[in-house]
Design a protein that fits this description.
The complex is a heterodimer. Chain A is mostly helical. Chain A has a domain of 195 residues. In chain A, 76% of the residues lie in helices and 0% in strands. Chain A is built from 12 helices and no strands. In chain A, helix 1 packs across helix 2, helix 5 packs antiparallel against helix 6 and helix 9 runs antiparallel to helix 10. The radius of gyration of chain A is 31 Å and the shape is elongated. The mean pLDDT of chain A is 80. Chain B is an all-alpha fold. Chain B is built from 9 helices and no strands. In chain B, helix 1 crosses helix 2, helix 3 crosses helix 4 and helix 4 packs across helix 8. The longest helix of chain B is centred in the C-terminal third of the chain and has 25 residues. Classes of the chains: A mainly alpha, B mainly alpha. At the A-B interface, helix 1, helix 2 and helix 3 of A face helix 2, helix 3, helix 6, helix 7 and helix 9 of B.
């Protein structure tokens, strides 16, 4: 058997290190000594060295994936990328969503203009319709063309989450803008309607209901279910604002505090959580290959 | 010397020089690891090493400084090797039959007989490692070829240090038995 004294200093150091490793692994010097020849033999299996050319090619490939340096240029780049993504997704969202949303919002604004009396209390028709329209648009985003989203994800650097978030931003933003324009016009034409109370009466319910229907659509994989539950919840809430609930269960289902000012932070938080959870589910489904 | 963790942190900021240093530092060793994990398939080891680096760069945004870098890189490589065999429905033992071990021996002027003997020895090691369960083989290669510490193996494979030790101990004993058996047959 080869003795350490037969080895050159570098090999002797290696041998000593190997022995120390074996003692640590086996817990006894005797056992380590017995197994040393096995490890020595293992280590005779060398591997062919790689070439500089191979490393160069790898570096070129990796450099393409290197994150961009931070700074203004990067922020500008991110902003440009986000805008490009939004513009690209605008073409993909079903055109009916834009048209239907605009039409219903216009109707809500007209009815509010003609029939709404702020002195009588209650929700303005615009405030009733705005959350419903936004929620329906957002729910329809999901299941109609998820396969196309996943195909796009394969073809671009954007993730399924980013694509879905872009569409969500577009549709929700569009409805937000319509509702805001409607509210501003209403307050301009009808002096007794105040802008901020009107805006606050639809803004938080709109966010909550949209997030709720989106989340349900993702979880149930069916936009109809998401829309139906969202509409039901909101319908019950609107109805029970003026009518006494038949029982405690219905009263709870109608979310009595939905329009209360103190509920607004909670609605915003719940909305953000539901959207985040839905996007997480989509990403998880993509990773596991499940069509969630 | 700049640590691997500092280099990874710099790569997060888009530092190309840091990336070059990291590749220079780890590429050969990683190919070596994957070479042993793929029963001596050099091309496959190269491909998997490239894929491991690509995944690392794509996921560099998730790197949390100063989390140990090397176990992270090798965990990616280990998963790739495992996935390859799962996906291809090819097992190590069958691959070992394709490898003649001759590619493992450099033509460094040694006589052909010596080269042939080294190749046969390599072949024997490939066969012996192929007889081990995957979990033991991974621990053995990381320990005795890559010279990882027990803690690094534990982090790479996501198992306790005690489990690492028991896998090494079982693996080595099994290898010794195999080698004794073959020596007896010679």
């Amino acid at each position: 058997m080869m003795q350490p004294s037969d080895l050159d200093p570098a090999a002797a150091t290696k041998e000593a290190r190997l022995k120390a490793m074996l003692v640590e692994d086996m817990g006894s010097a005797e056992e380590a000594e017995a197994l040393l020849p096995v490890v020595r033999q293992l280590r005779t299996w060398a591997f062919p060295p790689t070439t500089t050319g191979e490393k160069g090619k790898l570096m070129d490939r990796l450099a393409q994936e290197l994150p961009q340096p931070p700074g203004d240029r990067w922020q500008l780049h991110s902003l440009k990328w986000a805008l490009l993504l939004l513009r690209a997704q605008m073409r993909v969202v079903q055109t009916e969503i834009w048209a239907a949303s605009a039409l219903v919002m216009l109707l809500g604004a007209l009815v509010t203009l003609v029939a709404y009396d702020p002195q009588a209390g209650g929700l303005a028709p615009l405030a009733v319709l705005a959350p419903v329209v936004a929620a329906a648009g957002v729910a329809l985003l999901y299941d109609s063309d998820l396969d196309r989203i996943l195909e796009l994800e394969n073809a671009t650097r954007a993730s399924a989450q980013a694509l879905l978030l872009a569409r969500l931003t577009l549709v929700f933003g569009f409805n937000l803008m319509l509702s805001m324009v409607g509210s501003v016009l209403l307050t301009a034409i009808k002096a007794e309607v105040q802008l901020w109370p009107l805006v606050l009466s639809w803004l938080f319910p709109m966010a909550f209901l949209s997030a709720f229907t989106f989340f349900l659509s993702v979880v149930t994989r069916d936009s109809v279910v998401g829309t139906a539950f969202g509409f039901g919840l909101w319908g019950l809430h609107v109805l029970l604002r003026t009518t006494a609930p038949p029982n405690i269960l219905v009263q709870l289902l109608a979310l009595p505090g939905l329009a209360a000012p103190e509920a607004r932070p909670w609605l915003a938080l719940a909305s953000a959580l539901m959207v985040a959870a839905a996007l997480r589910i989509v990403e998880h489904g993509r990773q596991t290959g499940d069509r969630v | 010397m700049v640590t691997n963790e500092d280099l990874a942190h710099s790569i997060q900021q888009g530092d190309r020089d840091a990336l070059a240093t990291l590749v220079e530092r780890h590429h050969d060793a990683l190919v070596g690891y994957l070479y042993r994990m793929t029963a001596g398939d050099r091309n496959l080891a190269q491909d998997l090493a490239q894929e491991a680096f690509l995944r690392l760069i794509r996921g560099i945004g998730r790197y949390q400084y100063p989390r140990p870098f090397k176990p992270w890189l090798y965990a990616i490589a280990t998963n790739l090797a495992r996935d390859h065999y799962k996906r291809a429905i090819v097992r190590w033992k069958t691959v070992e039959q394709d490898s003649d071990g001759l590619g493992d021996v450099e033509d460094d002027g040694e006589p052909p007989e010596a080269r042939l003997e080294a190749a046969l020895e390599a072949r024997q090691i490939i066969t012996a490692l192929g007889r081990l369960p995957e979990a033991q083989r991974e621990a053995m290669v990381l320990r005795y070829y890559q010279e990882f510490s027990l803690a690094e193996i534990s982090q790479t494979l996501g198992i306790p240090v005690g489990t690492v030790k028991s896998r090494l101990s079982l693996g080595l004993r099994r290898l010794r038995d195999l080698m004794l058996e073959w020596d007896g047959m010679r």
